[in-house]
Design brief:
The complex is a heterodimer of chains A (362) and B (294). Chain A is α+β, with helices and mostly antiparallel strands. Chain A is built from eight helices and 20 strands. In chain A, a hairpin with a 2-residue loop joins strand 12 and strand 13. In chain A, helix 2 crosses helix 3 and helix 2 packs parallel to helix 4. The longest helix of chain A is centred in the middle third of the chain and has 18 residues. The two termini of chain A are 33 Å apart. Chain B has 294 residues and is an all-alpha fold. Helices cover 71% and strands 0% of the residues of chain B. Chain B is built from 13 helices and no strands. Chain B is flat and about 75 Å long. Classes of the chains: A alpha+beta (362), B mainly alpha (294). At the A-B interface, strand 6 and helix 2 of A face helix 8 and helix 9 of B.
Chain lengths: 362, 294
Amino acid sequence: MTALRIENLCVRLGGRAVIEDLSLEVDTGEFLVLLGPSGCGKSTLLHTVAGLQESAAGRVLIDGVDRTWSDPAERNIGMVFQSYALYPTMTVEGNMSFGLRARGLAGAEVRARVQRVAELLQLGSLLGRRPAQLSGGQRQRVAIGRALVRDAGLFLLDEPLSNLDAGLRASLRRELKLLHQRIGATMIYVTHDQIEALTLATRLAVMQDGRIQQLGPPAEVYARPANRYVAGFIGSPGMNFLEGRFAQRGGALHFLASGLELDLSAHRLAGRPPAEGEAVVLGVRPEQLRLDGSPHARVQCEGRISLVEPLGGHEVVWFDCAGEMLAAVSHEARGFRVGDAVRFRIDAATVSLFSPGSGERR
Amino acid sequence: MNIVGRRRRPAWYADPARLGLLALLISAALCFLVPLYVMGLTSLKSMDDIRQGALLSIPAHPTLAAWRAAWTSACTGVACEGVSAGFWNSVLIVVPSTVIAVALGALNGYVLACWRARGAQLLFALLMLGAFLPLQVMIYPLVRLLAPFHLVGSLPGIVLVHVIFSMPIMTLLFRNYYAALPRELFLAARLDGAGFARIFLQLMLPMSLPMLAVAAIMQATGVWNDYLLGLVFAGREHLPMTVQLNNLVNTTTGTRLYNIDMAATILTALVPLAIYVLCGRWFVRGIAAGALKG
């Protein structure tokens, strides 16, 4: 079932088009993450869905009803703001019950609902406190509780973890995922953090300049990025890019760059068949770039290591290959040292190819 | 190891800069306090004492007779009932003028800052223009305007006039205060389904306690100290204390009773003084409130 349907939405802020002709469908129970850099329109999109921002064109349908011009209160939406926006003069209990009281629910029903959500989020002992007396993580949970208590059909979360320190962010991220698994509500989550996006999403939308660049399960967005922008935005360290051209060698399609030759017969090409000598950009994730010293390896390029970043369980090795800085992730401690010569191989089935002009996937 | 020439800071009495500062502050304080001192002493003297002419001397036989007379029996024009009647008139004027003005100012500020209606900016600019126009040019038109409604020379009339003239500054105070609050609070309340009144009464007003205090202090002292509007609009029945004080001081039958004049003046000044002493803390807090994150 479709919980949210956005049709050809345009939003202008101060005369500037922030969102242009955007269409999107979100199914019930989905956890959709909108990922993009600041200013890409992801928060604006969320505010437009909530009715806090007027659209210039297009329609917003929530649970099948056209809500484009509805008041925020009528949309049955629970929202968690980046700043939490807890009411400072009210207790936790008051914050959570405010929306219920505003909707004229009976006192007993209000208490029961607040109690239920408080138990779910382990807020029971904090109900009498004011926001100023809570830690960052507790405030965040109260903000989620305030959205949950209304039994909304759709939950919008606007960078809810970005004000927390790293450790807390990771643990609340897991709590949020568990919560979604438990209650199965439809959630739309805005973030610029790719770790949050990849871990939380059941479907991921990467946005840039008010447009959705790619929409799909996070694993697919990661493995088969639709264009060079998406490829570069997701992954840390970022994808390696090598400029080269297509060439036929012995009946098989090859990628050729200075000092590198890669058989592409295992690669599924998108779009039209390539022309001989056509320019192309090869994208390889650092973990798909195997550093290999053994003589049996299919050696394609030789380079010298310029930097080693040890990360405990694995290390990132930076080396140069035909004038390009490339990163490779190595999971075995092999004692790489700066200045060493390395050889690597690439599994052609896992690489991405982009056309240099449009950046689209080939 | 005295690399940067670290020396012990001289004691305050050995530091010329600090001594100079202290001298300046003390002389400034004296400028303000000496008149008060003279007034206080004179009000405690008998007329015989005053005729000695020593302005700064301690009264030989301190007496509260002048205070009693100023409060109950000094002549303010034809009537000789002291300034007590004026005191109660002022209270009757100040209380509603403050409560209504602060409430309306908060409401105006809330609408302008949160709801952002079409034309709100223009409306606000016009209101601010009102704050810069001198009061005097509006008095005569206002008298003509209010006369048909029998509001000139009545208690509701003077309260209305005070409320009208306070609107620009009250609105400005609250608009700026609400505009400085995170907008997401307002949006969250809208999503929670709260309407215009509920957001104002349950969310915005409780958050604006410091500003309510500041606005109330400003308005109460302003109205209490008003002379001109009270003289024109209050009518003979409700002349405020300031007007009665003027009448008392300017009523000359025989010798000028300096001790009673002084006592009556201090009595009149006592209310704003008490407000500042008791609420000054709030005043500073309210003014600084915008600088801090809630």
